[in-house]
Amino acid sequence: GIMMMTMQDLFLKVDKERDNKVFEVKCSFLEVYNEMIRDLLNPSSEAGDHLDLREDPVKGMCVAGISEVGGLSTAEEIMNLLLEGNRHRTTEPTAANVVSSRSHAVLQVIVEQKDKTAGASAEIHVGKLAMIDLAGSERASQTNNRGMRMIEGANINRSLLALGNCITALSEKGAKGAFVPYRDSKLTRLLKDSLGGNCRTVMIAAISPCHLNFDDTHNTLKYANRAKNIKTAATRNVVNVNYHISKYTQIIHELRSEVSELKTRLVNTTCVRCAGVPPAVSMDDETRQAVEGIQLEITTAFESLRAAKKSLAAAEHQRQQRSPARRSPKVDNAAQEDKENLPATADDSIVAPGLDATTGSPEDQAYEELAANVATLTENVDKLEAEITTRVEAEEVRGFLRTMFQTKRMELDTEELDAKRKADQLVLKQKDAEVERLRAQLALRD
């Protein structure tokens, strides 16, 4: 189940990035049997059991002539290939296991990723996942192997011993630059990148809780414990590819396909709320005209309310500018002196010449009129929303118009909050300037 869950997780991450990236997933399946490499996906190839192992400066260790299956898009496709390869894997009955595997199996999955937008050059990210099923070590006294089975067991133990020596050399402290015997076995040469290269290595040990297998369990745990001491530093594998001019035709075709796909996606995702039209409901022309008239009334009402609120906010700002708290100290002192020079009345109330104590200034009267206008327009909007139930019969159209009201109100509230925030910032700046002016006066006085 580990391989299946790993593949599902891999393709789950690939599917999340398919909108912006292009992925190519390939896999190969081989076995190391008696120090010979066999292709399990194509066992009838001309090379047969004699596939050569070579080291490429870019790809690392690779098997010459191995068959790779590309164009994979789901985990089930890889698992089907895995089941097909297992049918070709070498298994023989022994005293310990009826279907004992006589070889080490290696499943390699290669993922190539590049940007979906084509260009004259591209960066290709390459990742390789190698999952190895190691054959268990054998004791001839327990398995009762004879003849060919004994030779197979000896080769299995030899490759596992070589793997253990490589792990020991890599996990020893202070062994940087020390010799690692990768060439002692085909298995260790194949796993050179997976052990000490640009990778992350995980070893899963299969053990038995039975007391009869205590020695095997203890040795397996010691074997696996050394693998966790291997320290590797994984970096991204990025290959820069510069395309030839003959590739430009294909690049242009891919760009045009991407533009067409984006246009189609944009059309499909256009929603009713953004389009500003009622949903597709069967109605006659008279009803449709009535609904369009209601939409026009809603838009006009909210536009009038928006304009009135802007005028009210501007008047409020002017009133704040003229408030006594914002006068200069000289004006306040002069007003105080004038007040002291005037004779006191019975109720000690003084009205400045030219102002009516009952009506207030013309600016205040204009502000009150604007506030009353805003209140009236708000009531009109509320009445219009309440009339939807009586003027429209289709429930879907009612829902659409209610959504339209909510959207308009949210837009209006957002604009008011933005205007208030800007006004508060302006007030803060003016207060800061007044504080700085007072500080300068105090410094000059001192």
Key structural traits:
446 residues; elongated; five-stranded antiparallel sheet; alpha+beta
Question: Secondary-structure map with pairings?
Answer:
Blueprint: H1 2-16, E1 21-33, E2 36-39, E3 53-56, E4 60-63, H2 75-87, E5 91-92, E6 100-101, E7 104-115, E8 121-133, H3 140-143, H4 148-171, H5 186-190, H6 192-196, H7 214-227, E9 238-242, H8 248-268, H9 272-275, H10 285-322, H11 329-341, H12 362-386, H13 388-391, H14 395-445
Antiparallel strand pairs: 1-2, 1-7, 3-4, 5-6, 7-8, 8-9
Helix pairs in contact: 1-2, 10-12, 10-14
User: What's the shape?
Assistant: elongated
Number of strands: 9
Cα-based radius of gyration, to the nearest Å: 41 Å
Structural class, judged by helices and strands?
Answer: alpha+beta
Approximately how much helix is present in the residues? 40-55%
State the major sheet.
5 strands, antiparallel
> How many distinct helices?
14
The average pLDDT score comes to 77
Regions with little confidence, pLDDT below 50 for 5+ residues = 271-280, 324-359
Q: Can you list the strand order of the major beta sheet?
A: 2-1-7-8-9
Calculate the terminal CA-CA distance, rounded to whole Å: 84 Å
Instruction: Name the quaternary structure.
Output: single chain
Range of strand content: 5-15%
| Order of SSEs | HEEEEHEEEEHHHHHEHHHHHHH
Descriptive notes:
By secondary structure, the protein is α+β, with helices and mostly antiparallel strands. It has helices at 2-16, 75-87, 140-143, 148-171, 186-190, 192-196, 214-227, 248-268, 272-275, 285-322, 329-341, 362-386, 388-391, 395-445; strands at 21-33, 36-39, 53-56, 60-63, 91-92, 100-101, 104-115, 121-133, 238-242. Strand 5 and strand 6 form a beta hairpin. The longest helix has 51 residues, at 395-445. The protein starts with a helix and ends with a helix.
